[in-house]
Design brief:
6-stranded parallel sheet, Rossmann fold, 565 residues, alpha/beta, 5-stranded parallel sheet, 19 helices, 48% helix
């Protein structure tokens, strides 16, 4: 609080502090003009990342889009990261982070990785997890003290509503989900009927499971309160609290609501502490936010929805509506919602297919999206392609391609896992492009940056649609027919990975032949309109973990930028 007696002097000091608050190389130094000698010699930003876990969205996505952010992402060696149910080597991660911090400009750190050894491990915390958290806090203080100019961005995940796949308790998952839902309903509405049902449900559950579940969320609340204090002490530049898979009601929502209220009571935290609905995409959003802040641009996003009322729809594993999720992800990357499409830099088209979505409605929605692209050639258009039931026939992309739409006319595409994951990915990708438009990199760097953006876009088509909507269901069916569980393929990991790799390679060839290998296409880029010709597309794919839930894709494009004007 500025005291009246020293208002003028304090204001000068405050302005000076604000000028120095963000690392000049990371957030606030005016970037040189495009094409200048200073721009060519500009130091590349180094961001050291402790990911949520070793899955592709948590680390690989950042590496692939780093050229758009003008940064270099440094990840820990795979040998010390987690591998599905094996936690990471926390001691080795701590040592690695201490070694990398002195030469970094910013850090994006998962507290769940430093406390538990990854997201999966956080769902089954070890008895010494609180001690591990204390050591993580001490580490953050140590790094800040030794590197005061390093901007430390930490994210923490509120546990998902469904209990972990622990063999001892997996049979109680439906009952525990009901318990969590009824707990929140009873606390919110104080309906005697809900309270009675809650008590009956609890009586049929093992007491030790209830104790474990309640302690899990109590620990999460305690962790996040401690991290908020680190923000108040300026140890952390920002804190993002992600809410993992949940529903409209549940104990995770109670924790989130408590934290939201506590943050709201401290207005000075408004631009430093955020709560978002998601987990896997949070690190990518932080990188995007750093780039947006560095650009100094006011980035505005206008959302469209494929069907009337879709903005008010709540999809599986989400506690809020699609409209609320969009607002959340837009704010998280440092952008804002536009009041009308004319003022927007990005048009975000959100599709949410259901079992009631007809082929005609899909064709109509695809026509609307094509029209948006054609009428807004100086804007980035992104598609979030969601489905209520995770079925291919509920998605919008096939209808769009049937109408002769070139896939690279979109700036971003996402349709993986939950609505929060997909919206967050598409918003982060398109926001990176919009931020780059405000202060474009030198023209000599344009082909490489454009290639990185299009390769990520191609990977999303092949992964989010081809793999998750078509290939994975087919492979899962084959595995189950052999008595193999897709979420734990064990001995069959390598063979299944090779099969999936070959299948994705075949689909990539078909995708290129049918939709990319044609006449040049004009696309909007940070260097205005560019005409590109796609000469080839190849992909390397594998299963990073011994399950089919996710694939790791590395795409390679051979493109020619024809129009350099």
């Amino acid at each position: 609080m500025i005291r009246r007696t020293f208002a003028y002097a304090t204001l000068i000091l405050l302005l000076a502090c604000l000028a120095l608050y963000w690392n000049p190389q990371v957030l606030s130094t005016p970037l040189p003009a495009s094409g200048s000698k200073a721009a060519a010699e500009k130091k590349q930003i180094k961001i050291v990342v402790i990911p949520l876990d070793s899955r592709p969205p948590c680390g690989q996505f950042l590496v692939q889009l780093a050229p758009l952010a003008g940064c270099k992402i440094i990840l820990p060696p795979k040998s010390i990261l987690d591998a599905y149910q094996r936690p990471a080597d926390i001691a080795a991660l701590r040592a690695w982070l201490l070694g990398e911090a002195p030469t970094a400009d910013a850090a994006i750190i998962s507290i769940d990785m430093l406390e538990h050894g990854g997201l999966w491990a956080s769902r089954n915390p070890r008895p010494d997890s609180r001690e591990a958290f204390s050591r993580a806090v001490d580490l953050l203080r140590q790094i800040h003290a030794a590197n005061p100019r390093l901007k430390i961005h930490v994210f923490s995940i509120i546990p998902r509503q469904i209990i972990a796949d622990n063999p001892a308790y997996i049979g109680f998952q439906p009952a525990m989900l009901q318990y969590s839902t009824l707990w929140d309903l009873a606390a919110t509405f104080e309906n005697p009927a809900d309270i009675t049902r809650l008590n009956k449900t609890a009586q049929n559950l093992p007491p030790e499971l209830l104790t474990f579940y309640d302690a899990l969320f109590a620990s999460s609340l305690k962790t996040n309160r401690a991290l908020i204090r680190l923000v108040e002490e300026n140890v952390l530049a920002s804190l993002i609290i992600g809410q993992d898979d949940s529903g409209p009601y549940g104990i995770p929502n109670i924790i989130k609501d408590r934290l939201e209220q506590e943050i709201a009571n401290k207005p000075y935290l408004a631009h430093k502490v955020f709560i978002t609905h998601g987990a896997d995409e949070v690190a990518l959003a932080i990188m995007s936010r750093i780039a947006v802040r560095a650009s100094g641009a006011r980035i505005r996003i206008f959302p469209y929805y494929s069907e009337p009322g879709a903005a008010y729809r709540i999809l599986p594993f989400m506690p809020v509506t699609l409209g609320a999720a969009v607002r959340d992800k837009v704010r998280l990357v440092g952008a804002e919602l536009a009041s009308n499409p004319k003022d927007a830099d990005i048009l975000l088209f959100v599709h949410a297919g259901t079992s009631q979505t007809s082929r005609l409605s899909l064709e109509n929605a695809a026509s609307r999206l094509r029209s948006l692209v054609e009428k807004n050639k100086n804007k980035y258009v992104a598609l979030v392609d969601l489905t209520e039931d995770f079925y291919a026939h509920e998605t919008l992309l096939p209808a769009l391609l049937r109408q002769g739409f070139h896939p690279f006319q979109l700036a971003a595409y996402a349709g993986w896992n939950t609505a929060g994951n997909s919206i967050g990915t598409a918003v982060a990708h398109s926001a990176l492009l919009a931020a780059l438009s405000a202060r474009p990199a030198p023209d000599s760097e344009a082909p490489g940056i454009l290639k990185a953006s299009l390769e990520f876009l191609a990977a999303r088509y092949l992964d989010d649609w081809n793999y998750l909507k078509e290939i994975q269901p087919e492979v899962d069916g084959q595995l189950r027919s052999l008595g193999i569980q897709p979420n734990n393929i064990g001995y069959w990991h390598e063979k299944t990975s090779r099969l999936i790799a070959r299948t994705i390679e075949d689909r990539a060839h078909s995708f290129f032949t049918l939709y990319l290998a044609e006449d040049p296409v004009s696309i909007w880029t940070p260097w205005k309109t560019k005409e590109i010709l796609v000469k080839s597309l190849s992909v390397k794919a594998a299963l990073p973990w011994p399950r089919t839930f996710e694939a790791e894709l590395k795409t390679h494009l051979n493109i020619e930028v024809i129009d350099q004007n």
